[in-house]
Amino acid sequence: MQKYVTYKGIIKFDPEDVTKKHIRQSEWKKISMIFFDGDLLDYYGWFVYKRYGVKLNKSVRNPHVTLINDSYRDIKSGLKVDSDEIVNLEWDRLKSKWDNEEISVTFDLDIISDYKYWWLRVSYDKREEMHNIRQEIGLDKPFFGFHMTIGHINEQNYNHSVYIVNSAMKFEYPIKG
Where are the domains of the chain? Predict the structure, then answer.
């Protein structure tokens, strides 16, 4: 039985660069995220710890789903243009339409991990509005599906995380690797 939860978030275009990666990439990428209020990372991190004994480090950003994290090149290709200026105009148009708008996001409650990161996936059948926003600026579905990272483990807990994920998959617990 699939379990879901829906939260309301606020779409933000050009969020503040708080990571070194985003600072480095800000010259050649466009970014939009859906931010959620509350302690969702603490809440789901607590469940991971109680169930699996895996202590997660929180993300630098508050709870969010990355909506757009794409290069000028990809946007130009999708819009079939060759000018950064046109990309910026289209970005500003999209931003004026969607920035600070509320959107409902539905998550599958099966927690997923690749050993290092733990996340909740946005339900496949509830992604249409997010895909439509991306299509407005010529973008296809993102390479990594929509998700909200709950947290990541530090290196000293990596082996324990590998053990937990592999054991859960072996015994078909609701965790996916």
Answer: 4-176
